[in-house]
Design goal:
It holds the Pfam family HSP20. With 143 residues, the chain is mainly β.
């Protein structure tokens, strides 16, 4: 359903284990996600706290879903005392399998969580196949 390719993920995990989650070498995950199957849908949820709905872009090209989000500064007159949340544009790509219907993706943004619901394509759903035998002959209609 979902193919994950992040060449630095294992390196980051190892670095965080060695440094105990501290240090400047580990990359912060600006867009953590959960992905799961719920019946005939594949659901992907991205945490985007502090991001406005109009600052999110979704694009699908072939089987690649790209999510871009921008966390903007609070304003010109604001004097920051502590700034730990990263600002700027964040991007994440998901490689979707052929079994998902990318033409019917539903996207909702609520309480800082972007939820994508991607239906399983009809051709990928299990179906019953009727079996005929040589003993059965097609019915003929007299005209």
């Amino acid at each position: 359903m979902l193919m994950r390719t992040d060449p630095f993920r294992e390196l980051d995990r190892l670095t965080q284990q060695v440094l105990g989650g501290q240090g400047t070498w580990s990359r912060p995950t600006a867009m953590p996600m959960d992905a799961y199957r719920d019946g005939d849908e594949f659901v992907v949820c991205f945490d985007l706290p502090g991001v406005a709905a109009d600052a999110i872009e979704l694009d699908v090209e072939r089987n690649v879903l790209t999510v871009k989000a921008e966390r903007r500064p609070l304003g010109k007159d604001v004097e920051m005392q502590v700034s730990e949340r990263p600002l700027g544009v964040f991007s994440r790509q998901l490689f979707l399998g052929d079994t998902l219907d990318t033409d019917r993706i539903d996207a909702q943004f609520e309480a800082g969580v972007l939820t994508l619901r991607i239906p399983i394509a009809e051709r990928a759903k299990p179906r019953k196949i009727s079996i005929s035998s040589a003993e059965q002959s097609p019915k003929q209609i007299d005209a």
